[in-house]
User: Fold this.
Amino acid sequence: MFAVVEGVEDLERRLGTLPANLLAGLEAKAQALAVALAAKVRDDKLSGQVLQIGSGALRASIVAEVARDGAQVTASVGSAGDIKYAAIQEYGGRTAAHEILPQKAQVLAFFAGGAMRFARSVAHPGSSLPARSYLRSSLEEARDEIVAELSGAVSEAWERS
Assistant:
């Protein structure tokens, strides 16, 4: 007794195209999600929600990157460049005692005790900074949406195959 299965060729074709379709769909979806997450960090968290805008350097340093290596797609959002305070703002920490020197003048000028003061240097005792998460908190807030969107990309890949 023999069983005849119809549609085997069609199933094999669909399964054969699934990996390429899946990777392409995941890569495109990861790119869109990473760009949206970076925008959330810049436009919400670093525009007053978590940190006030100072120079704008940290906000301008936020980038989204997606890489594909073989069968792996990786998305990342973070601070690019030499923003020395990016990590301590995200995770908190302690700065070491250090001397503050003028950068653009011969002396420092600042208000203290209601009067303008001048000094060639100031001995900063160091400081403790609390964590002010702008990256991890944004990722946590977007987690459910990210999972749903990536799951949807898998379903779409099956439909395209």
In short: The two ends are 33 Å apart (CA to CA). The helical segments are 8-43, 57-61, 86-91, 136-160. The chain has four helices and eight strands.
